[in-house]
Write a structure and sequence with these properties.
3-stranded mixed β-sheet; Agmatine_deiminase; 373 residues; alpha/beta; Agmatine deiminase; 4-stranded mixed β-sheet
Length: 373
């Protein structure tokens, strides 16, 4: 594997937006019995539905441990590639590479396209004291393994960062949250301006917009932006929203709306903000909690509110792969809003996405796009 010296932006690299073309999508395969109920059987069915839906629009590679490879291969369509890879859990948005591309036209007139992957430092969303599990040594190798498989060069970084904590518009703007990136359990020795400088140097962005907080109850990730807000296209964002003033999420949505309304993107555009209403509050049931072996991973206790956000979707080539939580009113409304926001995409709802939420995330969290070059 080639290791690239220096930083991406000065070398002409930038992180493309998720709505730009992909060559494939990467996913993991869940199996932790202390995070996924009933030995992860329900989560595996949900992951398989997500992978199958995405594979209608772009290639998919699913990584499964040696113990789970045969099971994953048997549950997934033949056209989905399944590779053996050990990991501590299956959140590929956060443990997989952040891909950056370099597109230039030299004097010869021929385009030179390059791709590389950023290997951030991962600490299980908070380290030994605040993280979701105590051993993440296998997760820390996932980016390196993916880049090795694809023969893609690698940038390394000592800064702790997960892919779900950032969204970019591909034209110089990055969205993140103070709640996550400024949390003392990530990079306690770095200031806000220092973190912002690193985002600019590695993602090739010129402006970082800091939402104060992420989605209510998102303690696992300390407020990842991918549950709260994302880009539809440059100058247009989708924002998790609720009209219920008694919901603790309401204050957070209003707070984010106010900030976005007063800001512009890197190119001076005012934002069009599309509200995407959250489902009515969902909670872990006694039955669901009983199916989890409460061991070394973060406890999943009955009565805990699930982080159920429709913003946590995946943009495939020509499709939106969106969670459905079993709340018909808001599930249907989410499909309607997403269809209007992405008129040239087919919106595919994934029934049973609650099973992914039970593990602490959703469709965007378990996927990682590899951009086309």
């Amino acid at each position: 594997m080639m290791h690239l010296d220096g930083t991406p932006a000065p070398l002409g690299f930038h992180m493309p937006a998720e709505f730009e073309p992909h060559v494939q999508c990467w996913m993991g395969w869940p199996e932790r019995a202390d995070n996924w109920r009933d030995g992860a059987v329900h989560a595996q069915h949900a992951f398989a539905r997500v992978a199958s839906a995405i594979s209608r629009f772009e290639a998919v590679t699913v990584c499964a441990s040696c113990a789970q490879w045969e099971n994953a291969r048997g549950q997934l369509p033949e056209h989905i590639r399944v590779v053996e890879m050990n990991m501590n859990d299956s959140w590929f948005r956060d443990i997989g590479p952040t891909f950056v591309v370099r597109r230039s036209t030299p004097k010869s007139g021929y385009a030179v396209d390059n791709i590389a992957g950023i290997d951030w430092k991962f600490n299980s969303w908070g380290g030994l004291e605040d993280g979701c599990y105590s051993d993440w040594s296998l997760d820390s190798l996932v980016t390196k393994k993916i880049l090795e498989i694809e023969k893609i060069p690698r940038f390394t970084h000592s800064m702790v960062l997960e892919g779900g904590s950032i969204h970019v518009d591909g034209e110089g703007t990055c969205l993140t949250t103070e709640e996550c990136l400024l949390n003392k359990n990530r990079n306690p020795l770095m200031s806000k301006s220092q973190i912002e400088d690193e985002l600019k140097a590695y993602l090739g962005v010129r402006k970082v917009l800091w939402l104060p907080r992420g989605f209510y109850g998102d303690d696992d990730t300390n407020g990842h932006v991918d549950n709260m807000c994302c880009f539809v296209r440059p100058g247009v964002v989708l924002l998790s929203w609720t009209d219920d003033e008694t919901d603790p999420q309401y204050e957070r949505s209003i707070e984010a709306y106010s900030l976005l309304s007063s800001e512009t993107d890197a190119n001076g555009r005012n934002f069009e903000i599309i509200k995407l209403h959250v489902p009515d509050p969902l909670y872990i049931t006694e039955e669901e909690a009983a199916g989890i072996i409460q061991d070394t991973a973060k406890a999943r206790l009955p009565g805990t509110r699930l982080v159920a956000s429709y913003v946590n979707f995946y943009i495939a080539n020509g499709a939106i792969i969106a969670p459905q939580f079993g709340d018909k009113k808001w599930d249907d409304e989410a499909i309607r809003v997403l269809s209007k926001a992405f008129p040239h995409h087919e919106v595919v709802g994934i029934e049973g996405s609650r099973e992914i939420a039970l593990g602490g995330g959703n469709i965007h969290c378990i996927t990682q796009q590899q951009p086309a070059i």
